[in-house]
Amino acid sequence: MTLRLSTVILPVHRWHEGGRDRWQRAEELGFHAAYTYDHLSWRTFRDGPWFGALPTLTAAATATERMRLGTLVTSPNFRHPVTLAKELISLDDISGGRVTLGIGAGGNGFDATTLGQEAWSPKERADRFGEFLPLLDRLLTEGAVSQRGTFYSAEEARNIPGCAQSPRLPFAVAATGPRGLKLAARHGQAWVTTGDPKLYEEGTPEQSVEAIRGQVEKLGKACAEIGRDVAELDKVLLTGFTPDRGRPLESVDAFVDFAGTHRDLGFTEIVIHWPIPDSDFAADQAVFEKIATEAVAQLG
Fold first, then answer.
1. Interatomic CA distance for residues 242 and 244, integer angstroms
2. With contact defined as beta carbons under 8 Å apart, do 10 and 274 qualify?
């Protein structure tokens, strides 16, 4: 399978002051998909501009024609399956069926406490995700849903006419732990990883590759347990969080080496950050665009 190259555009620019231009340029460059983070704020960008993911994607849907669009990723931190389902169905309709929902359990960042709640323990986070994702699946595939859960409920929730894509828009499930991987195996059309965060500061690229290899193997076992062929799932690597950091974007050759190594692990899609000067995602725009237009062909 040909490796697909996608980008993630952080929602840090006003739409009419460079925001729209980036999404349109991403389509011109031939990216398979353009994603954005779904946060209320994020890390070093917390005190600067940051716009909402779903309104941004709605605008991007009207400004583009072919490229797929999505979140990378949404989480239960500040969302509810019932309202999220309605927004996703609307977005999928506006885009003409081009939306992928990246979704995960979330983390202990700013979103975890912004609504005034205590940060959830790892167990509660996993419990919530285990309830959130199956309910969202039902909401996007059934016309009316009633369900009582420990954390999330729906009462005669209507979602007619449903997604433009059938039976629903695809889920790209971000997971590395056993419970999350089981959810990816059961509900996902794709699986997402950023690598092993424990290796980011002091690990080596070689250690990262072995850690990711282990994640892929665990995904395969989770699929085998329910009788699913792991080859049915796309494998998506969101770059920038392995010990390689920004080095793969220093040249086309560097990226081809990096992408080829991970393609050999079974990945079908590599996602690179649109450059943002003076940030962790700083990169030479010209090199970035050259990677977008030349690298995939070199991978064969």
1. 5
2. yes
Letter string b/e over residues 221-256, b meaning 16 or more CB atoms within 10 A of that residue's CB: ebbeeeeeebeebbbbbbbbbbbbebebbeebebbb
Q: What is the chain's Cα-based Rg?
A: 18
Write out pLDDT tens, residues 220-266: 999 999 999 999 999 999 999 999 999 999 999 999 999 999 999 99
In angstroms, rounded to a whole number, what is the distance separating the alpha carbons of residues 123 and 30? 41
* pTM (2 d.p.): 0.97
What is the token pair recorded at 2?
């040909």
